[in-house]
Amino acid sequence: MSTLYEHGTLASLMAGNMAGTITLGDLLKHGSRGIGTFDGLDGEVVILDGEVYQAVSSGQVNHITDLTAKMPFASVHEPGDLQPLDLAEVNFASLNGGFVKQHELSNVFAALHLQGTFTHVKVRIAPKQTAPYPSLLEVAKGQPTFTRDNVTGTIIGYYAPEIFGSVTAAGWHLHFISDDRQFAGHLLEFNAPKLSGDLQIFDSLDQHFPITDQAFRQGSVDLATVRDSIAQSEGNNE
């Protein structure tokens, strides 16, 4: 079996439940690749081969080794049964279009891992918030963005079916980190003439809820607007 482990829900994060509810150490028991954010929406997290990197709103990238650090939302998996990829002229438009159709992803969860040299990359990084927390949509309106041209690095992230669009981000949710570990963030735009890597299709979703967290248990989500709000906060659907 191939399992995607997700802690928390994006809908809860949208509602302002940004306090950390799982330790990094506990999260890493479920996977060595993944993405997420730290307590208070503190930056964008990239996990590669068990190593954890945090891009903060100044643009700095930190190598995190404190396994007691907490996260409100994260997704991880162990690589396995990988489909090798060699792609040409890659961007969000190609991933959202022909790639999804070719690999029949519309009704499955999948992990994407791509490496190469990018002609252009644009990322955004969530600034750390303090309680009482705003909604994620409010945070997204003021998030700093950063660009880099001619950079070698890695894309890591996930595809989720539309029907799960309140549990997580429907479509692609991708993060980027450069090979020199000096540039990273939530991916908004990118262009690359050639990328290689792998695709992993999951037959199981392990959705973990922070049931001991009172804010999560008592929180409410406006389902009428949550999916549009998530799409706006993600900002990468071409």
Q: Which helices and strands occur, and which strands form pairs?
A:
Elements: E1 3-7, H1 10-14, E2 22-23, H2 24-28, E3 33-38, E4 42-48, E5 51-55, E6 61-64, E7 70-71, E8 73-77, E9 83-91, H3 92-102, E10 109-124, H4 136-141, E11 145-160, E12 171-178, E13 184-202, E14 204-208, H5 214-218, H6 226-234
Parallel strand pairs: 1-14
Antiparallel strand pairs: 1-8, 2-7, 3-4, 3-8, 4-5, 5-6, 9-13, 10-11, 10-13, 11-12, 12-13
List keywords for this structure.
7-stranded mixed beta sheet; 5-stranded antiparallel beta sheet; alpha+beta; 238 residues; 6 helices
Going across the biggest sheet, name each strand in turn: 6-5-4-3-8-1-14
Task: Describe the largest sheet.
Answer: 7 strands, mixed
Query: What sequence of helices (H) and strands (E) makes up the elements?
Result: EHEHEEEEEEEHEHEEEEHH
Radius of gyration: 16 Å
- Relative helix content: 10-25%
Tally the beta strands.
14
Number of helices: 6
Terminal CA distance reads 32 Å
Determine the mean pLDDT.
93
What gross morphology would you assign? globular
Secondary structure class reads alpha+beta
Low-pLDDT sequence parts: none
Strand content: over 45%
